[in-house]
Task: structure prediction
Amino acid sequence: MPRFQLTVPIIGILRGIPADFFSELMKASFGAGLQALEVTMNTAGALDMIRDARPHVPPGRLLGMGTIRNQAEAEAAHAAGAMFMVTPNTDLQVIAYCRGLNIPIIAGAFTPTEVFQAWQAGADLVKVFPCGPVGPGYIKELLGPFDQLQLVAVGGVNLENLGSYFKAGAVGVGVGTTLFGKDALERRNGPAVAKNVGSFLQQLEAVRAGTF
Result:
């Protein structure tokens, strides 16, 4: 039984998003059906974004913080109200900290050893990063010996390969600018963001229905 399960297994990753557009972007993304949004710690004003937006997250939606590289950043994310945390690296202290607070933790890893260490340490999901250079086949190979793991593919995921990652066995994917649309983000166009997110969710449904 998964320790943390996304009913909509696409995590929207926001890096470098302007603070004054975040509220509209969050509303558009959640309104289009996205369940989980992640703001990266190295985004200017990220902690304030989480803190200000947290009371406005709709029921059933999740607002988390990513690019958490050490425990100090995890503590700051928790204080700001992050509902889940994501790391780019395998940090056992951060995993233990989140487990102690019962906050879902998606821990970053790449090599087979890191992937298994992250899971063994208590990560709810293991983020295989960066997937771009290795592709969906790497997820499939990892799940050969580690068939009990719950893997999330991050890096280089797009509409064209989305289905391949799920067919390879990933339980979720993390997608950045491609999910929201580069032009839509640059123009701060909420309706366009919603349309782009909707395209990904339609593709996801096609994958689930076996028509992709």
